[in-house]
User: Which sequence fits this backbone?
């Protein structure tokens, strides 16, 4: 084993793990903490265990958060095309009825990366919605007024 | 929280203020309902025609058609089975900001016209009553009506001016449903 | 990053300036709309609260805001405590509006935003003016307008007599009716 520099020492791990090297593995996870939780073992081990529990929760929350982000992006993209707030339901419903089976992740990415594609998808949905007399798509949108409040 | 009709919200000085007293003297409520005798119809102005046929002179009073007649809306057949009520037939949801409609249902003093004249059904009549008050309190129409408040056997008259400056207000018409049909069901 | 991509990045994250006319608007309902623009939630590139893609909003006519009818000007109360004993004050909405006609809208937006450190920076991008007078250096920045939530109502006085007469009538007076 050759550890000539400190950078390589960071990843060093012997074959037999004694107490020092086990602690070293944990302290690597606490290396970015503030204060004594970084280096003092009895504080660091408690903080690291709690942090790993947060990570477990965060893995579930990340999926929820990404779903919210896609919904936000679709509604923002729909509003740029002249829909009312919460009018993106009409767009999604129109797409589903015209057998365009794209999920929210794809639509959200299209709204950001390919606005022209999103616009042409909107035209398909809008025509279908007009045919089937869905709400709030008939006639021109009012200017300056959002709707009844 | 006391509602707006509660007299506890007004200070005592309002009850003896000059404006309220002058209202009492000049315009009692009965004056608005009482009507002096009238021989001619003010709405249908009678035109006097004088014709001479030989020795006879015939003086006629012809009824002139009202100015409203040209502008009366064509009512469709009633979809809800409510016969005669113009608002139900048109399916209008009148808001307190539609002053041109509300203005038709009040007289020059600002009092609501009775149902025999307007032809509204009972529900729309009550609804219009609230809308008129809302439009007035929002400052959209002017009324010359003394509002009477009865509380614990005593009568109070609402002061003309509040202590606070009159800032802008808007009303939510959905509360009328609560006035008419009781509180909303909450799950 | 190539030269063209770099320009695209600048154009995407440019801060835009929006105008909002608060005449006859409910401050608490319009705060939800205004804060959406302050956060950048109206853009498809928005990806959660950490994204720094918010815009500037210029609010005019804040002295003409409308609160809900009935008693809201009297029962909407703002609390403040100086920190000393007996230092609590409760200010009614009409009193606050009398002191500073931009304060109610400012507080409504401040309350509506997420409670974190980005709130102060976002509030700096909100410019409220009590009437239509905007500083000269702000006017050329404004590009677009946020639609109002409620239509501005018109008083009966503002209609001409001809308009009132020619508006479609719902009923005609009976024959024996006396106008009063």
Assistant:
């Amino acid at each position: 084993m050759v550890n000539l520099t400190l950078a390589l020492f960071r990843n060093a791990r012997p074959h037999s793990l004694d107490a020092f090297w086990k602690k070293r593995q944990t302290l690597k996870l606490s290396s970015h903490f503030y204060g004594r939780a970084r280096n003092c073992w009895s504080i660091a081990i408690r903080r690291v265990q709690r942090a790993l529990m947060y990570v477990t929760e965060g893995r579930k929350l990340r999926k929820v958060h990404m779903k919210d982000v896609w919904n936000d992006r679709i509604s923002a993209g729909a509003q740029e095309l002249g829909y009312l707030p919460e009018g993106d339901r009409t767009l999604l419903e129109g797409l589903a009825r015209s057998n365009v089976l794209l999920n929210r992740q794809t639509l959200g990415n299209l709204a950001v990366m390919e606005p022209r594609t999103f616009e042409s998808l909107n035209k398909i949905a809008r025509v279908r919605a007009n045919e089937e007399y869905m709400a709030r798509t008939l006639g021109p949108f009012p200017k300056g007024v959002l709707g009844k409040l | 929280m006391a509602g707006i009709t509660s007299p506890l919200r007004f200070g005592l000085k309002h009850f003896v203020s000059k404006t309220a007293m002058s209202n009492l003297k000049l315009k009692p409520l009965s004056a608005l309902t009482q009507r002096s005798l009238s021989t001619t119809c003010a709405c249908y102005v009678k035109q006097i025609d004088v014709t001479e046929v030989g020795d006879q002179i015939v003086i006629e009073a012809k009824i002139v058609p009202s100015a409203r007649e040209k502008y009366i809306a064509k009512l469709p057949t009633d979809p809800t089975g409510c016969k005669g009520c113009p608002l139900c037939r048109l399916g209008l949801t009148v808001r307190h900001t539609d002053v041109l409609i509300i203005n038709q249902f009040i007289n020059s003093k600002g009092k609501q016209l009775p149902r025999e004249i307007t032809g509204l059904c009972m529900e729309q009549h009550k609804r219009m009553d609230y809308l008129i008050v809302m439009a007035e309190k929002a400052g959209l129409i002017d009324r010359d009506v003394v509002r009477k408040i009865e509380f614990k056997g005593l009568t109070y008259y609402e002061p003309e001016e509040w202590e606070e400056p009159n800032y802008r207000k808007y009303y939510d018409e959905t509360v009328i449903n609560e006035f008419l049909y009781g509180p909303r069901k909450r799950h | 990053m190539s030269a063209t991509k770099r320009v695209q990045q600048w154009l995407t994250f440019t801060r835009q300036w929006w105008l909002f006319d608060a005449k006859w608007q409910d401050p608490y309902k319009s705060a939800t709309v205004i804060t959406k623009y302050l956060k950048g939630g109206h853009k498809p590139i928005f990806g959660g609260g950490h994204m720094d893609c918010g815009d500037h909003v210029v609010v005019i006519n804040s002295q003409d805001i409308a609160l809900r009818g009935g008693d809201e000007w009297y029962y909407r109360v703002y609390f403040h405590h100086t920190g000393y004993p007996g230092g609590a004050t409760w200010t009614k909405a009409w009193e606050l509006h009398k002191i500073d006609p931009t304060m109610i809208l400012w507080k409504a937006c401040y309350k509506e935003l997420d409670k974190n450190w980005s709130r102060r920076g976002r509030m700096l991008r909100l410019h409220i003016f009590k009437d239509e007078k905007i500083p000269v250096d702000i006017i050329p920045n404004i590009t677009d307008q946020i639609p109002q939530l409620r239509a501005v109502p018109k008083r009966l006085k503002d209609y001409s007599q001809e308009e009132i007469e020619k508006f479609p009538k719902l009923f005609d007076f009976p024959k024996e009716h006396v106008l009063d």
